[in-house]
Design goal:
Number of strands: 21
Radius of gyration: 34 Å
Number of helices: 28
Low-confidence stretches: 1-17, 187-191, 392-403, 831-835
Helix content: 40-55%
Structural class: alpha/beta
Length: about 850
Amino acid sequence: MYEILIIYLPESDRPMQQPNLQAIIIANLIGIIILFITVVDNAWRFRTRALQDRLLTLMVLTCFTCCITDPASYILNGKPGNAVYVILIGCNIWMFIMCTLINDLLITFLLHYLGMTISKIHKCFLYLLSCIAMALIVINFFTPVLFEISKGDNIYSRGPLFLAYGLMHIFFLIDAGLIYFTARRKSGMLKFFPVWTLIGPVISGSLIQYFFTGVSTLWPFICISLGGIMFGLQNDLLFRDKLTSLNNRFYLDYLISNRSLTAPDAFSLMMLDLNDFKSINDRFGHTVGDQALSDAANAFTRSVNSLGEVIRYAGDEFIVILHTQDPLLINGILQAIRNNLAVVSASDRPYTLSVSAGWSELDLRNHEMDEHLMHIDRLMYEDKKKYYATHDRCSSSPGHSSYDLLVKLEKDSITGLYNELFFFEYANRMLSVEGNESFDMICIEIESYNILRGRYGDAFCQNMISSLSDTLMLYLPEDFIMGRIGDDCIGLLMSHISMEKLKQIIDNVVLRKQKKHDFVSSFKCGVYSRIDDNCSAESAFRNARAVCESIRYEPDHIVAQFDNELSDKLKRKKLLENNMHTALVNRQFQVFYQPQYQLGDGRIRGAEALTRWFHPKYGAVMPSEFIPLFEQNGFIYMLDKYVLNQVCTDMRQLIDNEYDVVPVSVNISQSDFDKSNLADTLERIVDNHNIPHELIIFEITESVDARDHRKMLIILNQLQNKGFSISLDDFGSGYSTLNALGDMPIDVIKLDKSIVQNIRNSKYLAILQGSLFVANKLDIPAIVEGVDSEDQMSYLKEICSGKMDLYVQGFLFSEPMQFEDLSLRIAEQSTRYYY
């Protein structure tokens, strides 16, 4: 008989399962590498003052130290010596403290990022759990409730409450997920925070760590989570204002374009503007002004809580999207905003903050966002007038008189010139004074202002126009007034002088700026001379600006004067504007198609949609006349939609009759990109006709990114993601072409016709060869337009010599034709081809 002796050891006396030290070291080393890559790629976050970035920094430091102490504790486990015993105790106590800290940091980060607060009961419960966790760590010094290091052999073992501590840690993670989804449900806003990237790996690593011995997964998994969340937040940068950590106006555009603010949810829109903010910057400097904006943003966020989203719209203007249309609740939020600003003002800050506001219900099914913004802006302005009517002295600037306040209101904050409203007011007063004195109205328009703003930013362009106005004042006669009109124009009303004298003044301005190496874009100077008694300042300025427009494309012509010929053009322009809506209703605009042929086989591979206006009284109106006019007055948006609808109608007819179809390029104007829901509108037109998206190519000019580069990129990417192609027109005609290829989603490029038409010139030939080389390297199809002669065709064939497919368009092959003629030509060749 054999006797079997079974010895039962208490849990705390059993030796820990032998760990795989190599695997533990490698796992934590991977965690450290992930943290290092994260820090390098997000270095800017660790230098900012934003609370969420400081919290991320603390979490990174916490994980880094624990990825070192964790493998160290495994390596030293079972090694003899008093020093090893002390180090093991210290390492494990440190990791338990850091585990408690990471819980609190995570919850705080989420609450701040989401702009959310939790109830007092919820907050107290989390505090209680944290206190219990810290109490267990303290108690462990006296009795091993969490872990024990046996004296003598220095072997680590878990205590009886180890799993309880682990469950508290996992509860914090689950609670963090619930906070995120609760905030999203309450606000209805789209968040860019990838919550599962953070919580998923941490929960997985925690479960493995706490329920299995001899493994090290907690801290490496937390490193993975932090790396994932910080890289994920890179997508948020486009929509985040760095100063206030609020979302910016591009986020508002994103919500609109993704239909996040439409039925069945009920939304309201509020505009907030800080009162007398400029005086804070003037008196205390921009650093204090930035602090005031940050304080205001925090006050707005606390007041709105989870009921909506605060967006920094521009400067000291904020937009609040509220997930309610209850007037009582909205007025309560507005009162909370004013109360919280009063709390800030009562602190040790050197300034006083107050706000003017306007709000209305938001209905994007029946109204455009621009209409809502204009409406609440008017309401906010009425509220601001009430504020200034009762504040003779600005609260931020003691001693600031009501006269000084009027000066502040009438001046442009950038240039110090009169703003548009007051410039015309004072100009009309000067013109109304009886006397023999004659006045000239002059418009000075900076060229390519929007392109420069898109490339270099608002600050650069504002400094440019401010410098130009300062230089002008050095040479102007005494009797004048000057104002800033819009973004890119300076209006000048002065006593009449000869054109020679004015040209001399402009030459002096240009020369002085060249000597000072002070950059300013080229500008045009339009003059409306000797204003008559029946002409208002506004009309005179429109005439002067029309002069600028007339010489826009004449680089050597800087100063020009209004004359009878231009007067006739303006009358013609007015006539066209009066008839454009009727022309659209009566279908006077007709769509023609110019085929695009492949150079190799001569087959039609695509077509460009072109617009012609046939007026019953005035005959054919050339596109070169009405397209620029419509781009100025905004009617081009209606025309572009009309053309797209007609193209889809024609294509639907071909498809229904089982004819072959080729892709058609349709133009998108620069001003179309001001429409926040442009991508959805265009898609809806195409889908109404059930046209495959790959058959539509939206064509933009290389300067289309002039107004708002980032907004344009969003819309183009949306169109491309919907399956449409993007074509870049006029390639090679401007300085921004290569930049456009670098950052815009381009599928096709069209070389400007001026290149092939000057192909005998060696410089243009080099441009053509270089452009085709770039297109070939980027694997982008190229179309050469303006091919009108056999000579040009021969050059193209010689350049390509079979190395790449090239597409051509021009009068040599075909003039623009009507739809029926195009369909016949396509049917004759029986081809179906897509770019």
